[in-house]
Give the backbone structure.
Amino acid sequence: MELTPERLAAQLEGGPLDRAYLIAGPEPLRVLEAADAVRARARAEGFAEREVFEADGRGFDWGAVEATFRAPSLFASRRVVEIRLPTTKPGKEGAAAIAAFCEDPPADVLLLVTGGEWSRQHGGKWSEAIARIGRVVVAWAIKPHEMADWIERRLRSRGVAADRDAVLRLAERVEGNLLAAAQEVDKLALLADGTPLDAARMEALVADAARYDVFRLVDAALNGQPAQVSRMLGGLRAEGEAVPALMGMVVMELQRAAALAQVQARGGNLAGEFRAQRVWESKQAVYRRALQRHGAGRWERFLAEAGRIDRIAKGRAAGDAWQVLERLLLAVAEPRAMALLGQP
């Protein structure tokens, strides 16, 4: 039976660790925090070593994972072996390795598998094998009507009391952005001073996390959300922002995506490139979704278009900089919008 991250937390508090865990889903924050809960409990139970494998492509060496399963602990201690599957698809070789581990799990090894996606097509005999000796945890995205309850639970867990109007005000401001909501709750835990929050005090304490800023604009494009791109860009324009002030962040993110696409195109170590680019684990799923939509050549085309927009904005080329910027970001978000750039 699948667990939610919340039920996993209760299970970890009320019973011993299982032999294996699969934690996957489209909500990176929930996956990360559920995995952190398993790691913390493992440390408390004496799992002193941790080995991490980034299974991010066809060239991944599953033989190394199998050797690790069989190898004795370096310091005669218990170990966590963590396998990160960005697409949550281990392939034939990986599925066999995981299933073999579950058939006869070593006494000193805890297996933790994490993934960024989940559906019926992702599971198989390997995930069923994990379920037989452990737990399968699915971190679904929080739906809009669930956001207020999620925020209320998180506030309580941080020792913050808030009435329903205050909770709804915060939910409205973060606009479904779970990471922004989590950050605001952590800030409130420091600022509330134990005093219950009503809507007015919530308004005074919480920064407007839903404001139309360039960071969220580029995230919307990378996440494949064209409607949000248009709305946020309109908001930025209405607030009096200038295109040149936006282009630094836009170009930086496009350069990062282009570098990642080049590594992926040549079958390189994408996980290593994420580390080199200092991309947070919670943000990696955003880039992976973007890389699934566009190949390396398109990212170079996007960078060239960004350069043209910068020249337009500075009066060095003809055109409407806002219009061309919108077309660029819509193309990043939706491959069908490549026609807006004059490309199929």
Q: What stands out?
A: Residues 214-341 form a domain with the Zinc Finger, Delta Prime; domain 3 fold (CATH 1.20.272.10). Residues 69 and 106 are 7 Å apart (CA to CA).
